[in-house]
């Protein structure tokens, strides 16, 4: 999985969509060993990108 590579590179936030499970996993707080936080979201949830906290998005819209 590439997620640990992104953390080591200092990418502040990564979103991973799993269409089969209908989930969105949001990784934040990168360290050299990986991300400190990972949050799994489902259809009824919403999330805002760390860079744009005022722009909440519905997970259902991201899943298609």
What can be said about this structure in brief?
The chain is an alpha+beta fold and 64 residues long. Helices cover 17% and strands 42% of the residues.
Q: Tags for this entry?
A:
three-stranded antiparallel beta sheet; 2 helices; globular; alpha+beta; 64 residues; two-stranded antiparallel ribbon
Number of DSSP E strands: 5
Largest sheet: 3 strands, antiparallel
Low-confidence stretches: none
Number of domains: 1
Structural class: alpha+beta
Q: How do the SSEs run, as a string of H and E?
A: HEEEEEH
Strand content: 35-45%
Shape: globular
Q: What's the number of helices?
A: 2
Task: Give, in spatial order, the strands making up the sheet with the most strands.
Answer: 1-2-3
Structure description:
This protein has about 60 residues and is of the alpha+beta class. About 15% of the residues lie in helices and about 40% in strands. It is built from 2 helices and 5 strands. It is globular, with a radius of gyration of 12 Å. The relative contact order is 0.22.
Please outline the helices and strands:
Layout: H1 3-8, E1 13-18, E2 23-31, E3 34-41, E4 46-47, E5 57-58, H2 59-63
Antiparallel strand pairs: 1-2, 2-3, 4-5
């Amino acid at each position: 999985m590439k997620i640990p590579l992104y953390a080591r590179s200092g990418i502040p936030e990564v979103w991973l969509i799993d269409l089969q499970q209908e989930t969105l996993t949001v990784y934040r707080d990168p360290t050299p060993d990986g991300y400190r936080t990972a949050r799994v979201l489902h259809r009824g949830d919403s999330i805002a990108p760390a860079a744009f906290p005022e722009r909440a998005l519905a997970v259902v819209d991201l899943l298609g």
